[in-house]
Amino acid sequence: MTTVISVPPSLDEQSFEQVIEQLAPLPPEQKVLFDARHARWASPYGLTALLCAAQSRSEKPSFAVPEHPDTASYWARTGFFRHAAELFELHGTVPRQREGHDSDVLLEITPVTQSDDVHAVVGRIQQKAAEILHGQLHLETAATMGFGMTLSEACQNIVEHAGQGGWVAVQTYAFRKRLGRRVVVIAVCDAGVGFRSSLESSPGHRHDDRWGDSRALESAVVHAVSRFRHGDAGRGQGLAGIRRYIARWDGKLSVRSGTARIALIPTWDEDDPMRESLPSFPGAQVQIMIPERLAGDPKPAARTRRA
Length: 307
Description:
This protein folds into 2 domains: 1-93, STAS domain (Transcription Regulator spoIIAA), CATH 3.30.750.24; 104-307, Histidine kinase-like ATPase, C-terminal domain (Heat Shock Protein 90, 2-Layer Sandwich), CATH 3.30.565.10. It contains 9 helices and 13 strands. The chain has helices spanning 16-23, 44-55, 69-77, 80-87, 115-136, 141-162, 194-200, 213-222, 238-248; strands at residues 3-6, 10-11, 32-35, 41-42, 62-64, 89-91, 105-112, 166-175, 181-190, 252-258, 260-264, 274-275, 281-291.
């Protein structure tokens, strides 16, 4: 018997929780069908998290392709179906991915499994990132350099902590819901061991009765705690670097892992800093949002040497 998982019409970081709520109670071997026939839009987070959902199943799931041609065409341009074909049994019409039609996609969905992938991903987008961040979002040249570093550190987090591969995607679009301006969005998602298990693997790790997914996220994101020994210079400090970057450019960072989600929230957003007791989902799902700068915006905060 196949269980149908309904994919919401608009799939983003918030609405993907509806997918997890349906999926979490099911055993990994349960046959499932992800029904995206009525989907009309998806963020980089939504698409990469869908791939993680398939990766988390021991029985290969099925996937019903969006019926609206514009939606299916866009998902094809992001590279979603190319990766989904390896993880799902696809049902419906899958458009052919066309080359050279990615004007609204900064970086299509790209797998990350090892350090060499990280260097390749960052190298591919440097020039285009400069064009979009400076030309469309009006960010200073320094933001472009920091963007590449941030993307690299977010991807490296998969290599260091996931225990298996993940995906990264970047997109720029108008964020009318709260900002009324354009944003660039980075999503880095995996279905690996997650932050709690990663930190517990540290030789010196000790935890009390309050230890759990939320404490693990707080330790990693806020306090830059790593599973690596202090002597391993530069290891496990990626999230600290991301925090500094988003603070400088008034961005937002959210990280979900296990049953908890933490967010570092700018003044333009109204999110919960911490959500606990969520339906369990494996791995770690990271989203970074950097907003467009407009005339009259205050200068970015000065960089600091410490997180």
